[in-house]
Design a protein that fits this description.
Length: about 140
């Protein structure tokens, strides 16, 4: 009977250790830091290498180069005159275009931003003109 208890103990310990490892490695990999401006990210230099960031900017017109596979592209973002090259591999949002505002999530490496997620800002055509109208409520 003690042989069975030892086996159960080792299986239980292995399961707990695996769950603990997954939790700890998940925190390290998915921790997205706070929002950075392009100039702030560049100023961090070597200390920013390999760390996760969020960065925002406008896609520079004429900078988008798409790969033949349709999933990879490079482009440059600009924020207040500071530019940064960006590399992305994944599904490109339908609303992504040159001159559009984007919010990127990813890692900074070798002086460029390796984006893992691209979110485009809403186009101004969706904003109403003048004051916002509120619906009338029935009394």
């Amino acid at each position: 009977m003690s042989n069975k208890r030892i086996t159960i103990f080792f299986v239980f310990t292995a399961v707990v250790a695996t769950i603990g490892y997954l939790i700890l490695s998940g925190f390290n990999d998915t921790t997205v830091s706070y929002y950075q401006k392009v100039d702030e990210l560049k100023a961090l230099g070597v200390s920013a290498e390999g760390r996760s960031f969020r960065v925002s900017g406008q896609v520079v017109i004429g900078s988008v180069e798409r790969a033949a596979d349709g999933l990879s592209m490079t482009f440059t973002i600009d924020e207040l005159g500071q530019t940064m090259p960006v590399v992305f591999h994944g599904i490109i949002p339908d609303t992504f275009k040159e001159g559009a505002g984007v919010l990127l999530e990813g890692k900074y490496a070798n002086g460029r931003f390796e984006a893992t997620n691209i979110m485009t800002k809403c186009a101004s055509k969706y904003e109403g003109e003048g004051q916002m109208q509120t619906p009338q409520t029935a009394s």
